[in-house]
Amino acid sequence: MRAGPLSDKKVIRLLNAYFVPVYVSNEEYRDGGAAPPEERKAYTRIYHEAIQQKRHNGTVCVYLVAPDGKGFDSLVVSKAAEPGQLQKMLKAAVARLKTKEGKPLIKPTPQAPPPKAEKNELVLHLVSRYDHRGSWAEFPAENYIVLKQPDWEKLWPSEDAKPGATWDIDKEVAVQFLTYFFPQTEMCDFALATRADGPYKHKVEQLALHAKLLARDGKSARIRLEGTVKLKHKFYPGRDDSSRDANSTVIGIVEFDASGKKPSLRLITNQAIYGDQKFSVALRSLP
Amino acid sequence: MKSSQVLRFFSPLLMVLGLARTAAWAEEKPVTDADLARWIDKRVQERQPPAADKRFDEIGWAHDIRTALALAKEHDRPVFLFTHDGRINMGRC
Q: How many domains does chain A have?
């Protein structure tokens, strides 16, 4: 949907000019999910209304609800994603309700903003994408990782290290970001994405991140990183596709400035393959 | 067509392919310490999502269903509710 109709300028214009758009993740709205009870109740009512009226329904679905709160149309995603179908549905709704054109009621804003973090925490932004395009590769996957001060301080070389010195980055620190070095997959449970006991049987099988001190001047330091990471991560949750390994070689740089405060970290894949498909990752710290 | 003619015909193509291979080989050479920051930053920049991948952000999304329903009633507009798995905004879905 995101790569299809929800990136279509005509659909975007219709949604902004005539509708109140909202999207929700099922994992927030199921029993025990993070959504408040009243929110879950509203979701359930719209879903059950579609069932009672024998309209399209399901967990991955588009629902239209009239201004009086009553649902009147719906389309499962497999249909809504077909070329022209969503636009047709939206136009029919506007004609039926005689909705007047207007400006977006909510100002469009970036939908994947950085998480709130403490001043001394290092926020990392990761972009991962297949090297080809089409289907799952139509847009990139993103993650944010927040390194706490005791963790990013472990990137620092030892007090007596001189340029040319080498060491290994603490694996417990490196795993916090290298565990996301895999491309887009069918992810139904974001919260369980990297759990070994989750539906993707995610596992960091091997990890090494070597550091080399390039320069040092007082508190400032420049460090070269090179390493490898080998992950297991099933493409489809619960399915047996054990051949889906993500293997990457990585290269990066850490720079501490003279202030001695949190560093700048950039790390990319030099070569990466998931199953038999190449992908690329870029990780960078945010200011 | 004689072999010499074939060679002459395809030689520009072979030259281009050869240059491309050379460029690819050059790309695989280990980056020097001196070039590291520039080399990494260029690739980090190239791998950021372009605007075309962020059209989803051009939609004025309501924060939740109850907010959408309230705005719909107030402004006489229908609600468009999309329910999905994972995190569509993060591309992990």
A: 2
* Pair A137, A277 in one domain: yes
**CB of A251 within 8 Å of any CB in chain B?**
yes
CB contact under 8 A, A69 and B72: yes
* Residue A107 resides in a domain: no
Expressed as residue numbers, the domain containing A77 is 5-97
Rounded distance between C-alpha atoms, residue A60 and residue B57, angstroms: 20
User: In terms of domains, do A77 and A218 share one?
Assistant: no
A129/B47 touch (CB, cutoff 8 Å), yes or no = yes
Q: Which residues does chain A have within 8 Å of residue B54's beta carbon, measured at their own beta carbons? A: 110
Distance from CA of B22 to the nearest CA of A (A): 18
DSSP string covering B27-93: HHSPPPTTTHHHHHHHHHHHTSPPGGGGGGGGS---SSHHHHHHHHHHHT--EEEEEESSBGGGTB-
**Looking at chain A, how many residues does it have?**
287
Cβ proximity of A143 and A282 under 8 Å:
no
State whether A159 and A223 are in the same domain: yes
Is residue A79 one of the residues assigned to a domain?
A: yes
pLDDT recorded at residue B22: 40
Q: Which of A97, A131, A163 is the last residue of a domain?
A: A97
Domain annotation covers residue A186: yes
Q: Is A227 on the interface with B (CB under 8 A)?
A: no
- Please say which residue of A97, A114, A134 terminates a domain: A97
Q: Is the Cβ pair B78, A129 closer than 8 Å?
A: no
pLDDT of A43-92, one tens digit each? 999 999 999 999 999 999 999 999 999 999 999 999 999 999 999 999 99
Contact B61 A22 (CB under 8 A): yes
**Distance from A150 to chain B by nearest Cα, in Å?**
25
B88 neighbourhood in chain A, CB within 8 Å: 1-2, 23, 25
One domain for residues A158 and A277: yes
* Number of alpha carbons in the 13 Å side-chain half-sphere of residue A71: 23
Q: In A, residues 186-215, which contact B (CB 8 Å cutoff)? A: 186-190, 193, 212, 214
pLDDT band, residue B82 (cuts 50/70/90): very high
The pLDDT value recorded for residue A138 is 87
Mean pLDDT, chain B, whole residue set: 81
Same domain, A17 and A93: yes
The pTM of this model reads 0.89
Is A67 touching B (CB cutoff 8 A)?
yes
